[in-house]
Amino acid sequence: MLNVALLWHMHQPYYVNPLTKTAMMPWVRLHAVKGYFDMAEMARRHPEMRMVFNLTPVLVKQIQELVNGEVKDLWEEWTKIPASDLKPADKRNLLEHFFKANWDNLIRPNPRYHELLARRGYDLGHISLDSIVPSFSRQDYLDLQVWFNLAWCGYAAVEEYKELRELKARGKGFNEDDKKTVLSVHRQILGEVLKRYRLLAETTRVEISTTPFFHPISPLVYDSEFAHRAMPMATLPPRFHWPADLEAQLQLAIEQHKHLFGGPPAGLWPSEGSVCPEMIPVLQKLGFKWFATDEDILFRSLAKESGNWVERVQLYESYEAEWDGACLQAVFRDRSLSDFIGFSAAKNSAQEAAGFIMHHIHGIRNATESKQDPLVAIVLDGENAWEYFADGGESFLNAWYGQLSRPQGWRLTTLAEHASRSVPRRRLKQLHTGSWIQGNFDIWIGDPEENQGWKLLGETRQWWEQQRGAVTPDIARQVWMEIYAAEGSDWFWWYGPDFQTDNDLMFDELFRTHLQNVYTLCGKQPPENLFVPVCRPTAKAIAAMQPIGLISPTLDGIQTSFFEWHEAGRYEVTQGHGTMFQGEKILRMIYYGFDMERFYFRLDGFPEVKKHNALTLKIQIENRTPLQYRWSPATGTIATVDPIPATQAAYRKIVEIGVPFASYGLKPNDTVRFQVSVLKDTGANVMTELEKHPQNGWIDFQVPNEMFAAASWSA
What does the alpha-carbon distance between residue 148 and residue 98 come to, in Å, rounded to a whole number? Predict the structure, then answer.
C-alpha cells in the first residue's frame, strides 16, 4: 500500500544582533501569528491527518528569546512608539517598512491600509520618503502601525481572538489602546505557539523533526571541498574542514528537542536538503532514524550506481543509505507535488488545487501497486507560501486534508512511523553530495562574495581552535555559539548574485558581528577585515550629497569661513538609514571633498561629544589601510595612529582631515569608497565600535579629473 507523508519545514534566519540583543527583522513574530499558528490549528482541525513539522532549532530559539524578554523585536518597538511621539526618522521607517506584506492579499482587501499604500506610492525607487513624511497625519501613522501588525494575523488568530475581528471590522480611526491590543495578541500567540506543537507531538499522528542548530550547509561545514563533487569547475575558498562542528550543531538540536518535546527527534531535514555520505555515520551515532532530501539527490545517486537511465517511478520506493558501515532510512521529496503547493496552488481555486494533487496521488498509487511499502513524500516550506493565498491557504488545506484523509488505496504516515517498519528497503551505497537546489551548492559557495565569507569564517574558526584552551568554560560556550551562528546557511544565501534583498547589507553586518564577537569575547581586537563589508556596494546606494566643486579648506579644526566647505559632499548621519538601536550619538554630519591634490573630511559632533576623553576615529577606505586617529573631544586634541604619509588632522570644534591622493596611489577617475567609525577602548586593549556611518554600504566619490576642475572653475 502506498504511504503518503507530509513534511512542513519552518525556519527563519537568526535575525538577532548579538551586541544589542535586538531582532532586526520581525519575521519570527509575524510568521508565528500567521503561518505557524495557522498550521498548528489546521492539524488540530483534522485529527485523522498525519504529518511532520520540521521546526528548526534557530527558529525555536528566537521564539523563546522573544517570549522570555531576552531580545527585543525592532519593528515591534517601532510600533510601540505613540504616534504623537514619532520623530521624522521613525515616520520614514514606518513608510518604508510597514507595507512589507503581500499587497494583493494582506493590503488591498483592507481599504484603509490600501489607501495609505496608494498615498505613499508603490515604487520606492521613485519616491523621496523624506519629502512625503509631513503629508501623513498622526492618525495616518497610527492606523499604519495597527494595520501592519493586524494584517499579518492569520485565520487561526482572527478566529480565536474576537478583538482582532472587531478591529478588522472597524478598519480605521484606531487609537493607542487598539495598537496595544494587537501587540498583546501577538505576544500571547508567541507564548502559546510552541505549546500547540508540543501538544500535537504528544499524539502519534504528528511528528516533530529537526535540523542542525543554526541551519548550516552540513556537507560544507564537514568539508567545503565536498562542493567539487557536484561543482567540479567551481572556484572554492580556502578549505573549511570541521566535522566536529557539524556533530556539535546536531547535538545542540537534539538537546533543545529533548527539552521542548520530551525526547530526541527521530528524523532530520538537513538544512536546504544538503547531504553527503559522510553524514550517515554521524546521524546514526546520534540516534537519528531517517533523513530527507530532494528527488534530484536520489536520481543522481541511482545514476552513479547503475549508469543507467532512471525511471521516475523509482522515486516512490523505500530507501536506506549506507556509508562506512552505517545505514539510515533516506526519504526523497516529490519535487513536482511539493513545488505545486508552494508555487502554483494559490493560483487555482481550493478545490481545483486539491483535486490536482489528489489526481497525482491516485496515479502514484496505481503505478506502485507492485512495489513493497512505497512512499511518496511531500516536503516543502510551511510558512511562506500562505501569503499568496487570498485566505492564507485555509480553504485549500481544508479541501486537501479532507480528501487526503479518506484513503483510497493509501495510508497517511509520519516518517518516524515509516522508518520503524521492518520492511525491505532498497540500499543506496553512493549517496550523491548536494542540496535540494540543482543538486549542488552553487547558492552558498563559489561566488567571490560567498568565498570571502567562507574565508573569514575559516580564519576565525582556525584562530579560535588555537585559543580555546585559554578561556573559561563560560566564555568558551559563548564563543562556540558565535561560531555556530556564523556557520549558518542564511548568510551565504544572500551573498553573491543568486538572491538579493533590501537587507543584504544587514545580513552581512550580522554575519561579521558574530565573527567579531569571537575575538571580543576572548579579550582580543578583531582583525580589520571583519569590519569591511563582504557585500559589494553595487546597487546599494547611500543617500549622500555629492561634492559640486573643488575645496581647499584650512585644516585648523574650526570653520574658518562659510565658503570653505560649501561645495563639499555631505552625509547626515541622523537621517535614519540604519536599523540598529542607538541612544546617544557622537557624530552628526560628515563632509567630504577634494581639490586636485588631496581629499578632505570634516566631522561634526553633537554637543555632548565633549564629555568623551579617549575615542578612536577610523575612516575605512575600501581595500586600503584605514585612517585612524586618537581623538579626545574633552581636551580638544587629535593625533594620528600609524600615520599615512603627509596626512593632516586638526580638532578644536570640528574634526578636519586632509589626505594626499598620492598617499593611496589614487589617480583621476578612481572611485573612493569610505565609512567613518567611532570606537572606544573598553579594556584589555579591545576596541568596541560605538557607531559607524553608513551603517551599511559605503559613501563614494570619484577622484577629480581636469574636466571636473575646469567645470568647477567656470561655475
Answer: 6
- Cell output for 557: 579644526
The 3-state secondary structure of 600-649, one letter per residue: EEEEEECHHHHHCCCEEEEEEECCCCCEEEEEECCCCEEEEECCCCCCEE
Closest CA to 31 of 150, 153, 113: 153
Asked whether the beta carbons of 550 and 593 are under 8 A apart, the reply is: yes
CB contact at 8 A, 38 and 155: yes
User: What region does 445 belong to: left with phi over 0, alpha with psi -120 to 50, or beta?
Assistant: beta
Cell numbers describing residue 122: 508603490
CB 380 within 8 A of CB 339: yes
What cell was used for 234? 567551481
Which residue in this structure is represented by grid cell 560556550? 477
Q: Give the Cα separation of 144 and 112 in Å (integer).
A: 9
pLDDT (tens digit, 9 = 90+) per residue, 615-629?
Answer: 999 999 988 889 999
Q: What is the pTM of this model?
A: 0.81
Side-chain-facing half-sphere of 564: CA atoms under 13 Å: 14
pLDDT, tens digit (0-9, with 9 covering 90-100), for 182-221? 999 999 999 999 999 999 999 989 999 999 999 999 999 9
Average pLDDT over residues 32-37: 98
Which helix (H) or strand (E) is 38 found in, with range? helix 37-45
Residues in CB range of 652: below 8 A, 6 or more apart: 556, 557, 558, 636
Q: Convert the pLDDT of each residue in 475-520 to its tens digit.
A: 999 999 999 999 999 999 988 876 666 678 889 999 999 999 999 9
Structure-block grid coordinates of residue 116: 495609505
From 591, 588, 592, 593, select the one nearest 575 (Cα to Cα).
Answer: 588
